[in-house]
Amino acid sequence: xxxxxxxxxxxxxxxxxxxxxxxxxxxxxxxxxxxxxxxxxxxxxxxxxxxxxxxxxxxxxxxxxxxxxxxxxxxxxxxxxxxxxxxxxxxxxxxxxxxxxxxxxxxxxxxxxxxxxxxxxxxxxxxxxxxxxxxxxxxxxxxxxxxxxxxxxxxxxxxxxxxxxxxxxxxxxxxxxxxxxxxxxxxxxxxxxxxxxxxxxxxxxxxxxxxxxxxxxxxxxxxxxxxxxxxxxxxxxxxxxxxxxxxxxxxxxxxxxxxxxxxxxxxxxxxxxxxxxxxxxxxxxxxxxxxxxxxxxxxxxxxxxxxxxxxxxxxxxxxxxxxxxxxxxxxxxxxxxxxxxxxxxxxxxxxxxxxxxxxx
Length: 360
Ligand SMILES: NC(=O)CC[C@H](N)C(=O)O
What we know:
alpha/beta; Glucose Oxidase, domain 1; Rossmann fold; 7-stranded mixed barrel; 8 helices; binds glutamine
């Protein structure tokens, strides 16, 4: 356990668009921030969660009462992929916690949560009644909010109308691995573990920007990755997915990728009241009694009723019965709303990658 100086308390607050104010203290970077306020009920995995690019544009509330006690690992890149994070940097706009640890203890701990936030210029608010705050978000639905640390004005920011994927996608194509089959990965803000799950199954992965013209590339299958924002904003991406359907290219959609594939198939998406963000979301295989516990992070969902002929619901959420995946009756298309790559969370659904690769 490293001894650290306890920093003096500095007041700050979270102001919600409904007028509610939560006072607390600042840690991390000393600046204001705005975004959509969402909560995650996971009990561990804050380094992986905070580096998930799907959180871009969001202020993340951790409901687990103590965050930071095992510190944060060093950014160690191996084969151009971060070893212990889901991307190279913190992606959330800010975090809100009840209590954070200035001291930490872990074999892999390199710095404190406070130091890590400062290094990436991300503010954190602690000393907040996160249970009270989460009740508001559950009852009223997700709200816009801002962290205010000084007297400078800051506007609310609505991520649902913005092209957030352009801010998190890879800038140029990049190839990983050396397997015989080549998977084209459309990077909408891809989590590292999607890539490592593919590489573990001995395929080559060609990772391309979300707006890349894929018509000149050779590949055996396509993965549409997770990503931030509202799927209906990404019309060109939906067009790309439509072409994959026309050409009957084996395709796996994950989270945002599921929503994009569903829009391309002709289905509709809608926004859930407060989304699913945790590591223990139960899903059931439609038409059976088989259940899995999954890791999730999403606000939007596919409306099962709008799935066109040929497309079947694959999984459903056992908390609210919303759609958690779809599969084509005959053609090699499948997609899931949850995260088969987990990280953080249970790895029970990694078989989704095997099933996809059987089609490739
Ligand atoms: N993790 C994801 O890919 C999330 C997809 C989309 N941004 C949503 O919130 O529903």
